[in-house]
Write a structure and sequence with these properties.
This protein is mainly alpha-helical. The protein has a single domain, classed as Winged helix-like DNA-binding domain superfamily/Winged helix DNA-binding domain (Arc Repressor Mutant, subunit A, Orthogonal Bundle). A two-stranded antiparallel ribbon has the order 1-2. The model has no long low-confidence stretch (mean pLDDT about 90).
Length: about 80
C-alpha cells in the first residue's frame, strides 16, 4: 500500500483547535486519531466514532505522525 500524502488532508489554523494539526474541514486533531490507535481502536472503529472521517483521513493522520516523528530529536532515557 502506498503511503497517503497527508498534505492534502491535514491543516493547521490558529482559529481551529488552538492551531493543532487537524483533518481538513473538521476539528478532529491528529493526536486524537493516533491516540485512538494506541488505545487499540481499528481504523474502522475510529471511522464509526467520527463518521465525518474517511479511511484516507485516518491513514493520512498516521502518515503525518510518521513524518513528524522523524523530525523530532529523541533524547535517550537513562
Amino acid at each position: 500500500m502506498k503511503r497517503i500524502d497527508w498534505k492534502d488532508r491535514i491543516s493547521t489554523d490558529s482559529s481551529i483547535h488552538h492551531g493543532t494539526a487537524c483533518i481538513k474541514g473538521t476539528r478532529i486533531p491528529i493526536s486524537m486519531i493516533v491516540g485512538s490507535f494506541a488505545d487499540g481502536m481499528t481504523p474502522e472503529g475510529i471511522q464509526q466514532e467520527y463518521s465525518q472521517l474517511t479511511l484516507e483521513d485516518i491513514y493520512a493522520a498516521l502518515s503525518y505522525a510518521a513524518d513528524i516523528i522523524h523530525q523530532e530529536i529523541v533524547v535517550p532515557f537513562p
